[in-house]
From TrEMBL:
Part of the 50S ribosomal subunit. Belongs to the universal ribosomal protein uL15 family. Transmembrane segments: none annotated. This is Large ribosomal subunit protein uL15. Residues 15-28 have a biased composition (Basic and acidic residues). The keyword rRNA-binding applies. Residues 77-144 form the Large ribosomal subunit protein uL15/eL18 domain.
Length: 145
């Protein structure tokens, strides 16, 4: 015979009746109803996070997170491999040319990274270069200004 859903029952003692506290002195939890004697907790409801008038934890912690360095210089990056793809004819490449080609956005500093291969002689003008980018551009016969 297969067991069916309506045959299932909780284990004996697993389900007990809800304890109704404060129902007379005869019961286990009559009179003080598990609240102890006297004090605020015995007289009215107090939040679990109440610290007795001390400045609460959620107000002691700082409101804003982290630190923003006002002197940080943030660059938009372009790899030499991408420059070689877009400017395959060689020649001079400025930040304005990169903006027009859609490689970077207007109004930000540009840094050239050395990821990828370059075989075209490019005269690149940018705000910053990595050492590998500079050496790759110069190895291809170009110039990094």
């Amino acid at each position: 015979m297969a067991i069916k859903l309506h045959h299932l029952r909780p284990a004996p003692g697993a389900k007990t009746d809800k304890v109704r506290v404060g129902r007379g002195e005869g019961g286990k939890r009559g009179k003080t109803a598990g609240r102890g004697t006297k004090g605020t907790g015995a007289r009215k409801n107090v939040g679990a996070n109440f610290e007795g008038g001390q400045m609460p934890l959620h107000m002691r912690l700082p409101k804003l997170r982290g630190f923003q360095n006002p002197f940080r210089v943030q660059y938009q990056v372009v790899n030499v491999g991408r420059l070689a793809e877009v400017f395959a004819d060689g020649g001079e490449v400025t930040v304005v040319d990169m903006i027009e080609a859609g490689l970077v956005r207007k109004g930000h500093l540009v840094k050239v990274l050395g990821n990828g291969e370059i075989s075209v002689a490019l005269e690149v003008t940018a705000d910053a270069y990595t050492a590998s980018a500079k050496s790759k551009i110069e190895a291809a016969g170009g110039k990094a200004n």
